Amino acid sequence: MTLLDGLWLVSALTALGAGLFGRSPATGPWLTVLYGVQFLLVALMGSLAYGAAPVPASVTFDILGQALSWRFTSLSWFFALITAGASLTAAWFMGGAWARAYEQRGGDLRLLQLALALNPVTMYVLLASGDFLSLFVGWELVSWASFLLMLSAGGVGVRWAMRYLVYAIGGAMAVMGAMVQAYAVTGSFAFGALAAAAPNLSAGALWSLVILLAGGFGVKMGLLPFHLWQAGAYAETPGPGSAFLGAISSRMGLFAMLLTLWGVLGFAVLQGLHVPWTPLEANELLAWVAAFTLVFPTFTALRQNDARWLLAWHGIGQGGYMLMGVAMGDALASAGGLMHVFNHATYQAALFMAVTAVVYRTGTADLNKLGGLVTRMPLSFLVLLVGIIGLAGLPPMNGFVSKWLIYRALIDEGQPLLFVAAVVGTLGTIVSVYKLLHNIFLGQLRVEHETVREVPWSMLSPMLVLSVVVFVTGLAPGLVLDWVASAQRELGLPVLVPTLGGVARPDGGLDMLWVVGLLFAGFGVGALIFLAGGRARTVHQLDNYAGGHFLSADVRYHYSDNFYAGLMHKIGTWYRGSFRWLQDAVVAATDFLAQGAVGIYRSIQPTAWLLGVAVLALWWVTA
Amino acid sequence: MNFVVLAVALPLLAGFLSPALGRSSRALVQWVGWGTLAVCIAVLWAAWARLDGTSAAIAIGGFRPPLGIALYLDRMALLFALAVPVMVLLLWPREGTPQQFALSLVLAASATGLALSGDIFNVYVFYELTAAASFGLIAGRNAGMAQAAALRYLLLSAAGSVLLLAGITIVYLRTGTLNLAHLASLAPERLADPAGLAAFALMLIGLGVKAELFPVNGWVPEVYASVSGRLAGLLAGLVSKLAVLVVVRVLVLIFPQPEAAELMLVLGMLGIGAGELAAWRARDLRRQFAFSSIGQLGIVFVAFSVPGEAGIVAGLAVALHHLLVKPALFLLAERWGGSIEGLRGAGRGQWLASGLFILFALSLVGLPPLPGFWAKLLTVMGLLEQGTGLARLGAMVVMAATVVEAAYLFRTLAVLLAREHRGRLPEPHRWLDLATASLAGLVLVGSVFALRPLGEGLKAVAAQAADVDGYVRTVLGRAAASRGDEAPAGDPLATGPGSSPPSGGRVRGAGPVAAAPTEAAS
């Protein structure tokens, strides 16, 4: 039995336990321990990230004359580590007080536990896929597992889960088309067969493979224009579920895309594929899709008034950075893109948990109904602060490192327009996450939140652990970049050789140890001035005084609605809902066709159809 | 092998005796029916075991083919023939009258005959008999709606029969024979022209009425929505497949022209589109299943249109999967019939039924490793390997239909499992319906663990069915090489018992019924 078999077994046991006993909140800690064992097993395979040979699974299948096989490579391991971490922290967060409260509010805890446990199992199957058939099997399993997680909320969540399902099945069918097309060319579902045949394929065949695979897997990533399902589906899932989904679920799309387009077809093939009537190659086309994906959803996030929706929209946008990085394909950019997968998972999980913590205490995620919670929930505030610095890509958190690598590579590669898009996206993110922090934690405390307390430790501890990871991997990105380098090697991309603090380059590298040191030295000076200077008197938070007036608590002066009115005045006209319009148009067209189909079966004289088709068929065969 | 005739004759006899017996005791008729069907199963099973993968022909009344009428037994024929008594037994109209029992038995006899027929004349007779039995069963429920539906079915079916007969007439005029094996050897010379294709088109459309082929399936939604779930399951699951089986035999043996398969592909594609889209808009659960059945039969046609063994494997996989799943779904709709919105919350508390629904829906949509996925994969593989534009379009239609299918099946499930419910919930399912549906579910899940033997089994069935020479050799005992190369033995009408085939004695004229296993011929 290999470690991979063990991982499958333990994760399946976790799901079984969740399904059998998940109804009782008391199982939470036990399940968390099982998730911990999963994490440990993944960690034990850590030598994969340092050049060890792939870990195979003992299970193989032989069907349709094709052998299905599974194995973990360094790329699989990188994504599996993130999956294991995300599921462990999500289960930890859920396991104690949160689960009891969820149960008391009438939530279906068993369903939620089971759905959450099924997600990592299916992901480990997907991540281990060794040929197209096992990839497709894993892909479908992952899709249905996340569908179940989205369903677990009931109510509005069901509507969003249904929308997800339609998108996901559409994507899966595109993948199936590509897989069968590869089979038609090579007579095999093996990765190697297509890899060998790829250089000799015609441009048309290659394009259809690239479009089907990128489109099919892109649905899961929320690439434009297939992104409309994601924000609602992730945001309306119960808190720990959305933390897990937001952290890793849509990255499975990136993994599968990397595995097939980069790993099997090869990056050189993408670079050699010319987009007709443009100066672009296929990989640049993908980079441009990524650019649009990172700009538009980010600014849509800016307009959200629900904290969960805001984060979910950012999740779509950040996926754009990852794809842009790997699509540029040089050592720096692809390292940045891959590292961003890790970074995003850590801070996004922390952010969703912090928001869930606020919902746990206040009952709302509406950004217009919160404010001033910083003194009530100081640690949650800290977690959210660390998270948004990471999300915005500012030092000293890890998000800065991955984005810096991407910016740097875009300049190196001579892509000023993509660089501008990346920077505009970051700008939007900074503006947007400030709104998140401000509307929840800063400003005026609402009277009804006067008695709000910090969340219990069962919820705080995973949040704090994640924040520490966000900071430490920002301080010493070399830890993660080592793993990234072996994933790059697996994909046949140029490899970035990292230092502990980042990258050493003759023309100016990045050493986060120095950056963070200087930053904290600056903070230290500021703190000294603050402590040495003024005298402060602590008053009650509702005891306010402004412009010569005492403000009583019933006067609302916390500015939250129509945040950034000026900015929205400038860019608001861009929001015409074009994608929504497109989606609605497709649905309407389908409905129109369906009405026609129903009409056929409503006809009073069905024999007229018989006569008609007989005449047509005779005409067709004799013509 | 002669005893196989019992599988057709016995239920026919029992069926005709039933009304008389029914005057004394309803229970007696029921037991006679069950006993007969059990014997049929035993007979067909024995034939399957005895043949052990070879094929055989039975000349009825000792008249050697091509003059006499023949039954043909190979794996595919026996597979579907075996499905007939099993399905009729499982979907027996328990609360019916002796008349309905009689009709069910006649349906079983004629459907078995349809599966085993070795000539088009028999096919036509059994087809009409099947139609007559189903009219009676549909109209039998005495509801106005059912009778209106039966009338609709009757009209379409009658018109279809006319077309089928016209097609058969063309074939007969061109070749002078109706024996499938004889036709197979004559076809390359006499039917490889537009007139031959016209005959196929007419036969396809005529048989298509029962096979739910687009657009001659106008009766389907009305009938399935108004009859009992058991009968709907029988018609959708079994009878439609037997009509498809005949089409496939004719296509494989007589019409190897690409145009014939293309016609089937085009109509199948249209059927998928119309069926799945209409199901998407359906607001009544039985209607939704009926439309979904039209879509699935469309996939069956599309799959069988793929030339060669690959097409037969894919078509069989899709057809057998639907044969298993759709009747079970109709059984669940027995209590969950009517408006879907009215079922809000009905699935909660009936977890076995809901679980089965989820399982069947997942398999229909094609979640690997459930069998529905492999069936769909085989179809798409067959289509894309052809590389023609039309086949590629067919693959796209199959895949797009999957998206629509997932949308409506899971929308229905979301309603069934909604936390809130309105008004009175439907009664719980009868245990027998649930047990039958559970059996289908068990077979479905069990087949996941036997994918490899199943795949190999299907391949063997398909290889035998695609082997035209083997068919000809089995029935006529003629050498395979003669097909197409050498002129047929004079006017086929003159091919009497005198001009015996080279390996004489293969088809013995002595007994009333003779059999000729392939082994001996080859």
Walkthrough of the structure:
The complex is a heterodimer of chains A (623) and B (522). Chain A is mainly alpha-helical. Chain A is built from 24 helices and eight strands. Chain A has helices spanning 3-21, 28-44, 74-95, 97-104, 109-127, 132-151, 156-186, 191-197, 203-221, 230-235, 239-249, 251-271, 282-302, 307-328, 331-362, 378-392, 398-412, 416-441, 457-475, 478-491, 512-532, 565-571, 578-602, 606-622, and strands at residues 55-56, 61-63, 66-68, 71-72, 502-503, 510-511, 544-546, 549-551. In chain A, helix 7 packs antiparallel against helix 9, helix 14 packs antiparallel against helix 15 and helix 17 (398-412) packs parallel to helix 19. The mean pLDDT of chain A is 90. Chain B has a three-stranded antiparallel beta sheet with strand order 2-1-3. Chain B is globular. At the A-B interface, strand 2, helix 6, helix 7, helix 23 and helix 24 of A face helix 6, helix 8, helix 11, helix 15 and helix 16 of B.
Write the layout of secondary structure elements.
The complex is a heterodimer of chains A (623) and B (522).
Chain A: H1 3-21, H2 28-44, E1 55-56, E2 61-63, E3 66-68, E4 71-72, H3 74-95, H4 97-104, H5 109-127, H6 132-151, H7 156-186, H8 191-197, H9 203-221, H10 230-235, H11 239-249, H12 251-271, H13 282-302, H14 307-328, H15 331-362, H16 378-392, H17 398-412, H18 416-441, H19 457-475, H20 478-491, E5 502-503, E6 510-511, H21 512-532, E7 544-546, E8 549-551, H22 565-571, H23 578-602, H24 606-622
Antiparallel strand pairs in A: 1-4, 2-3, 5-6, 7-8
Chain B: H1 5-22, H2 26-51, E1 56-59, E2 70-73, H3 75-90, H4 98-116, H5 120-139, H6 144-175, H7 180-190, H8 194-208, H9 220-226, H10 229-254, H11 258-281, H12 285-304, H13 308-333, H14 351-365, H15 371-386, H16 389-416, H17 431-448, H18 451-466, H19 468-476, H20 482-485, E3 514-515, H21 518-521
